[in-house]
Design goal:
By secondary structure, this protein is mainly α. The chain has helices at about 5-50, 55-70, 70-80, 90-115, 120-130, 135-165, 175-185, 190-225.
Length: about 220
């Protein structure tokens, strides 16, 4: 057996529990950021399709700014920049807010595309029956658009899992942060490559099920058409 695998086996009892806890933290950050992105993204999408310029232009500006700047920079602004103004967040909260706000720009576009894919005639028919625009959106448009939105939303969730790796830069205890800490604290530089390989395995364990869900939703979407 190669020497580095022998060393890996010796350190395994210390490596695995740490990375397992870090994986739980990664899932926590991902879910928190996804919730923020889904809620804020809906607001952005509704503002984007609004006929009022005072709503549409700010949403367009937000989308362009958040999509046009790196998520890492946005997280740094929230974690480091706002602290200068007396607004402080712990690393996990800053990560959830930063990734969520960044994701809202992309999720908002997914929502908008799904809503605009529904034929305008259905809205007009609902309004002619006496429904308000809000009720027409809630009961007619969104239920149909949701079927179109689910596959890209699932793909976004996969990307979000991988994007959590950048929050290690603000000391959020996710997978990559703990992996680097293990290497540095225990001087396991000779097996650092294997530790990061294990990290990749943990990320795959999170993303592969989501990938399967996305594939099933894509097939289902074809049947819905």
């Amino acid at each position: 057996m190669p020497e580095f695998w022998i060393k890996m086996w010796e350190w395994w009892p210390e490596i695995f529990p740490v990375l397992l806890r870090a994986t739980a933290m990664t899932v926590q950050v991902m879910i928190g950021a996804l919730i923020v992105a889904l809620i804020l993204g809906m607001a952005v999408a509704l503002m984007r399709i609004s006929t009022f310029k005072l709503l549409r232009y700010p949403a367009l500006f937000y989308t362009d700014v958040m999509r046009g700047t790196p998520a890492l920079v946005q997280i740094f602004i929230i974690y480091f920049g706002l602290s200068d103004l007396g607004i402080e967040f712990d690393p996990v909260s800053a990560a959830i807010i930063g990734l969520g706000m960044n994701g809202a720009a992309y999720v908002g576009e997914i929502y908008r595309a799904g809503i605009e894919a529904i034929h305008r005639g259905q809205v007009e028919a609902a309004l002619s029956l006496g429904m308000t625009p809000v009720r027409a959106m809630r009961y007619i448009i969104l239920p149909q658009a949701l079927r179109l939105m689910l596959p890209p939303l699932c793909n976004y969730a996969i990307l979000l899992v991988k994007d959590t790796a950048i929050i290690s830069t603000i000391a959020a205890p996710e997978i990559m942060f703990e992996a680097r800490r293990l290497v540095q604290a225990t001087f396991m530089y000779s097996i650092s490559g294997q530790i990061y390989l294990i990290c990749a395995g943990f990320y795959l364990a999170l993303t592969l099920p989501l990938s399967q869900v996305a594939k099933r939703l894509e097939k289902a979407k074809e049947r819905w058409r």
